[in-house]
Design brief:
Keywords: Endosome, Guanine-nucleotide releasing factor. Helix 3 runs antiparallel to helix 4. The protein has 372 residues and is of the alpha+beta class. The longest helix has 19 residues. A five-stranded antiparallel β-sheet has the order 2-1-5-4-3, with helices on both faces. Strands 9-10-8-11-12 form a five-stranded mixed β-sheet, with helices on one face. A two-stranded antiparallel ribbon has the order 6-7. The relative contact order is 0.10.
Length: 372
């Protein structure tokens, strides 16, 4: 599918492909693309300029170019440390955009906060529907960029500080994940603790994004959502960027990814509720008594109707802290005195069950506590 043009005189192909704006804004950027009545997708506005690579990626993420013709109201993802947020709407007959059937508003930013950018792009969409020009959008965009606020009686108000990052981290439901996977949730917890590569598949992008955005909460002590890549295509450039990350959570809607064992240590078929550990990762992911204890705690906490998702996360976090406490007696200051490293001989002398010793060793490796 392709994107439409603004109302009034239809822009020439030159104006539709020219970037708007000459000032660089490091925190975020915005763009609009449309699908016209001839089925052509046009990139009509961008501030500031962007690279051809990022532009092509955003066009790929935008459902206006999707042959399935499914409309995804809001999608988000990450590419090379830049987050993208895309809202797409169908243009009603009453709009001034008389030659436009659909359009998408795209924002890129350095922070993870889907609710924040979904709210802001909805306001920008209403402005574009009413005025058919990016000028009003630009004014609001600059206002938010410089003052953190834009106000409009007609289109709604937006205040950046209303959207706390911690709320974005807690927006997903750990209880839903445990409800679907039960004791197998401990596989996901272990993979995240060891900074392994998790690939999640479901044919619906909304399901993929809801599931993947929640997983980093299983290792709340890190509060690291940079490992999340919630919308990835099997495109060479995207896969190259992904494989540069030591550990990640990557979401796909193409089942072909199941055949790409080079991309994952753990594969989650969300549609079939199946979790598979890749052969090369099985040694590090060996489960034992400790994992059973963790799994039982996760399930017991999640199934408690009196507990909220944040309380479940807190329970898991306390257990995680306990695991690191168990590792402390076998840690010592490195030769240069800069960090703690694992004394493997001391760990072996403790005579933990093999699976526990193996897990603690690989955890130390994930935390960069091995002597070089």
């Amino acid at each position: 599918m392709k994107a439409p043009c603004p109302a009034g005189p239809r822009p020439s192909s030159a104006s539709a492909s020219t970037w708007a704006g000459v000032v660089s804004a490091p925190a975020a950027s915005g763009a609009a693309r449309e699908k016209d009545t001839n089925g052509e997708v046009l990139w009509v506005w961008c501030y500031p300029s962007t690279t051809a690579t990022l532009r092509n990626l955003l066009l790929r993420k935008c459902c206006l170019t999707d042959e399935s013709k499914l409309l995804h109201p809001f999608v988000f993802g990450q590419y090379r440390r830049t987050w993208f947020y895309i809202t797409t709407i169908e243009v009603p007959d009453s709009s001034v955009l008389i030659k436009v059937t659909h359009f998408s508003i795209v924002l890129t930013a350095k922070d993870f906060n889907p609710e924040k950018y979904a709210a802001f792009t909805r306001i920008l969409c209403r402005m574009y529907l009413k005025h058919g020009s990016p000028v009003k959008m630009m004014e609001s965009y600059i206002a938010v960029l410089t003052k953190g606020i834009c106000q409009s009686e007609e289109n709604g108000s937006f205040l950046s500080k209303d959207f706390d990052a911690r709320k974005a981290y807690l927006a997903g439901s750990i209880k839903d994940i445990v409800s679907q996977f039960g004791m197998e949730t401990v596989i996901l917890h272990t993979a995240l603790m060891l900074k392994k590569r998790i690939v999640v598949y479901h044919p619906k992008i909304e399901a993929v994004q809801e599931f993947t955005r929640t997983l980093p909460a299983l290792v709340w002590h890190r509060q690291d959502w940079t490992i999340l890549h919630s919308y990835v295509h099997l495109h060479a450039d995207e896969l190259e960027a992904l494989q540069m990350c030591p550990g990640y959570i990557a979401g796909f809607v193409d089942l072909e990814v199941s055949n790409r064992s080079d991309l994952y240590d753990v594969f989650v078929n969300l549609a079939d509720s199946e979790i598979t550990i890749a052969p090369l990762a099985k040694e590090a992911m060996t489960m034992g008594k400790l994992h059973k204890e963790i799994g039982q705690l996760i399930v017991q906490s999640a199934e408690d109707p009196e507990k909220s998702d944040s309380q479940v996360i807190q329970d898991i976090s306390l257990k995680t802290r306990e695991i690191f406490t168990n590792l402390e007696p076998f840690s010592e200051v490195s030769g240069d005195g800069e960090k703690l490293v694992l004394n493997f001989e001391a760990l072996k002398q403790r005579r933990f069950p093999p699976a526990t010793e193996n897990f603690l060793y690989h955890l130390a490796a994930a935390e960069q506590m091995l002597k070089i």
